[in-house]
Amino acid sequence: xxxxxxxxxxxxxxxxxxxxxxxxxxxxxxxxxxxxxxxxxxxxxxxxxxxxxxxxxxxxxxxxxxxxxxxxxxxxxxxxxxxxxxxxxxxxxxxxxxxxxxxxxxxxxxxxxxxxxxxxxxxxxxxxxxxxxxxxxxxxxx
Length: 142
What we know:
alpha/beta
């Protein structure tokens, strides 16, 4: 996982896939870049999110997960590794106010980071862009 990202990330390059921590002001720019590059862009607001159940509900809605999504970690991992249900030749996932989850549900936050990192590696092996950006307090805008 990366604590910072390039000033102008090339979201079309799977070699740069990964999970990145950014400042609040970066998410709009990253969303614009993803849309410009015709990637699927999904934004999840984590304001007040304090547990696994709330996190999974928000992800199901913001990522438009399939109706048969099992509301558990294994189901989420499967969806992230094979995002065929989400149109796009690559994916950019944006997480607003991630500090709430990081503070209130450390284990769940870490599990999510690991899953996203795994999905990014899996996508890189398939030569498909996959990026996750978390807006966290204390990270400066790039």
